[in-house]
Specification:
By secondary structure, the chain is an alpha/beta fold. It has ten helices and seven strands. Helices cover about 50% and strands about 10% of the residues. α7 packs parallel to α8 (about 220-240) and α9 runs antiparallel to α10 (about 275-315).
């Protein structure tokens, strides 16, 4: 902890914490100045960092004029920016927010307070809105589908895995591998927390549409496929027994479906008239056995990795003093 106290009106329990507000940006000149000033007013003693990601407009200039600490990350992608932020910045508590002025600034104190008083490692801003332009129906459906998929595979966690508004503890940030390069890193946040059994929670926050002239960098279908790929990759890496078990089960069912008639015919006549089918069925059964074996081996490796990551996580002190 740093010795200089942090003063927040009506939030004295945050005194003594070094709080960093992290704002990744790409071509947000219309909104970034407003976002920085709003968080400066809400959290006057917090350090506000803006990391620019190859913007071609005046994002850097407006962020500096608003009083932010500005750095640049040349590798394109939100995941690359967040990985750099987490590596560079030292703080007790981290607040991550997009620079598009769509999130409720006043919710920050509630999220920070919950993280500190309940000793949570991640608090997610659960987006709530009645504005159609803020949250397109396709994005709502995709969010619900992917959130349900992650909850089914990894356990019940956040109800909004794509929210860009989050509070993290230091031990979350410094144990987070940050392997994704784009927007799919938000999914990785939730999976990381669930895998290490971290205490997490959600806070409802008002979500509004972008101001006129500001445009979203999301590509619905392209980013959707990337997120699905990341979920499958994380499943293979974090739940290998389930991943390879499902593949093995598919091979086993296929092999049994093809092989049962051949075996039945052999039992009746002592002949194998459909030799190619018998060979194919044998191949499927062999692949099923190999998949189950691979799942067992990789699961042992994954368990060892998980233990090391858990020990790394536990090496950092929680926010509560």
């Amino acid at each position: 902890m740093q010795n200089n106290p942090t003063k927040f009106s009506n939030f004295d329990f945050l005194c003594g914490y070094n709080i960093a507000v992290l704002i990744p940006c790409y071509n947000e000149e219309i909104t970034i100045g407003r976002v920085v000033r709003d968080f400066r007013d809400c959290l006057p003693e917090a350090n506000i960092y803006v990391y620019d990601n190859n913007s071609t407009d005046r994002t850097i200039e407006f962020a500096q004029n608003a009083g932010a600490i500005v750095h640049s990350e040349p590798m394109q992608g939100k995941g690359c920016v967040i990985r750099r932020m987490f590596a560079d910045i030292e703080a007790d508590i981290y607040l991550l927010v997009d620079g598009d002025a769509t999130y409720e600034v006043q919710a920050a104190t509630k999220m920070l307070g919950m993280a500190v008083t309940q000793n949570l490692d991640m608090v997610t801003g659960l987006r709530v809105t009645d504005r159609q332009n803020a949250y397109r129906s396709g994005h709502v459906l995709g969010n619900k589908a992917f959130t349900s998929l992650v909850q089914y595979m990894f356990g019940r966690g956040s109800k909004d895995i794509f929210s860009g508004y989050r509070v993290f503890s230091r031990r979350f940030v410094k144990s987070f591998p940050a392997l994704s390069s784009g927007f799919e890193i938000e999914t990785e946040f939730t999976v990381h927390a669930l895998t290490l059994l971290m205490p997490i929670d959600d806070v409802e926050t008002v979500y509004v549409e972008r101001p006129e002239g500001s445009w979203s960098k999301l590509n619905t279908y392209q980013d959707g496929f990337r997120i699905l790929r990341v979920i499958i990759t994380l499943l293979r890496r974090e739940r290998p027994l389930l991943f390879f078990g499902v593949i093995g089960a598919c091979f086993l069912v296929s092999g049994m479906g093809l092989g049962f008639p051949v075996v039945a015919e052999f039992m009746k006549t002592g002949l194998v008239p459909r030799l190619p089918t018998a060979v194919l069925a044998t191949g499927f059964i062999t692949l099923a056995a190999l998949s189950f074996c691979c799942g067992q081996i990789v699961d042992g490796i994954a368990t060892a990795r998980l233990e090391m990551r858990r020990l790394s996580y536990l090496s950092y002190m929680p926010p509560r003093r």
